What does this fold into?
Amino acid sequence: MTAISTNPVVSMLDKCKSLCELRQIHALMIKTNLFNHNFTVSRLIAFCSLSGVSGGLDYAASVFPRIQHPNSFIFFALIKGFSDTPSPVESLILYSYMLSCLNYSNGVEFSVPSVLKACGKLLAFDEGRQIHGQVLKTHLWFDPFVGNSMLRMYIDFGEIELARRVFDRIPNRDVVSWNSMIAGYLKAGEIEQASGLFDEMPERDVVSCNAMIDGYGKCGRCDLAEKVFETMGDKDVVTWTSMISAYAQNGRPMKALDLFREMLSLGLKPDGPAIVSVLSAIADLGFVEEGKWLHAYLSMNKMESSSVFIGSALIDMYSKCGYIENAYLVFRSISHRRNIGDWNSMISGLAIHGLGQEAIDIFVDMESMDIEPNEITFLGLLSACSHGGLVEEGRFYFEAMQEKYKIAPRIQHYGCMIDLFGRSGHLEDALRVVHDMPFEVDVLAWKAILSASLKHGDVEIGRSAALRAIELAPDDSSSYVLLSNIYAKAGRWDDVASIRLMMKQRGVKKIAGCSSMLVNGEVYEFLVGKELERSCSSHVLAKIDEAVSRLKMEGYKPDLSQILLDIEDEGKESLLNLHSEKMAVAFGLIHINKTAPIHIVKNLRVCCDCHSFIKLVSKVYNRIIILRDQNRFHRFENGCCSCNEYW
It folds into this structure.
């Protein structure tokens, strides 16, 4: 045995790096009669199955039938190798064959964790239960590795109660057992159970803390995630990534960005998920300078290709920050990768900029490269048609996704069609989609009808849609406000009063308009009804008065219909001047270099008067102003807007 184990042919396996070399070693084993020894053939099979050499596992499977008396280690190597593949059915077949060849006491137990893993992946519940029964009849139940594998199998089945019963009965629970059960509860969305078990843990490690931070983040409990994060002693990259992601997912983008900077200051190198989360946070903020800084960091550290998702996230970030040209440059630099996420991000980015035809052109390029579109592709494409007023094109692609690509539309796709018809004034077509779609109509569909009714002045359709939307989401203030606006535009002030009374009685508060901008590294917010700092306020209000005076000389007439209160015209004009967009524009005119664009992010849809005001400001003051509102981008330049009045 010693002579065989030290044979140069056997030792060559340790240096093998390719399937071609593996075949040569196998041939030498056959020529030197080493293949007839179980030790050498075990080494060959183990190397093929477990080394990760491309094609090695399939080669091991082809060699296996030629082995006359396979031992338990050969079976173990193959079963484990196949259990790590996406479809490990061969593990179950080999395990069954092994039981018919060997006694259970002859090393069979080493394969049990791998076959339990295979059962979990395959959702092979009956086979998993049979193996569970075998384990209970033997000493294996006292092996923590086997117990933990069984626990994870039931979690994979989605049988969280059975998993808990296994957990409670494991004789020798270790930290892996606790972490697996906590992860199972989090996967099942049972955050309270996970939290309770976490509190009971006799000994926590980084893995358990990371799981809870991630779980709390995904269920919107950033406060609890912070508590775990702050009490941890040792933190790894996953810890920081989980906390950054929690902030990014829960509307706290500045906290995500600040924590990322703190992570870098400690000398930690971020991973792909951390980068994607921070890019998402920057996209939410709309602050391109932060995005450019991070892009430069990625380039300097050669991290742009460290994750397939980073390219898509960069495209999304630049698009949502108003720099669609930069997004396109990133896209063209990576489009050769044929990653569907990159193409989808580019199409969606063009959509929010109202560049419908350009989005269609990208889709045509995608088709010419035989890249198969998916549901998200068509969601972006239909949205692009909606924002660009391309009604017939929208109809065409809605049919194409079903007939050519066999993709069944989801409720979001129907929502795009409702929005497409509604924006273009085809309210009857929009209602037909609502009534014909094979889903229960959600609040977003009714709000799309409601918005279209406001735009095109259809009081009755708007009223009907509003009542449906309010019924589905009674705490959402936007439906009440839109209906109130419809009544106000029609001069039905009694109905306006009744809607406002309803809101007051139900405790529903209107969301205040807020515009934000990044100037010299500082974030400034302009909120309707909120006083600015005294030193800042006087300058901003004076600049608004100056701008209004200059604009009136160019033909600007304040659109008093945007103030939906039954008050005198003079009071309406004063209120118009305090809209958050106007304050942000005035602040930008004062503090931003004349050669630089003014970037503004607004939480609600820009009103018609502010839209007209900013168009004229761009002409009179010769400034480029980029405004991102709730729905899309508006690029104002030389008295024109990129939306072409279709918004």
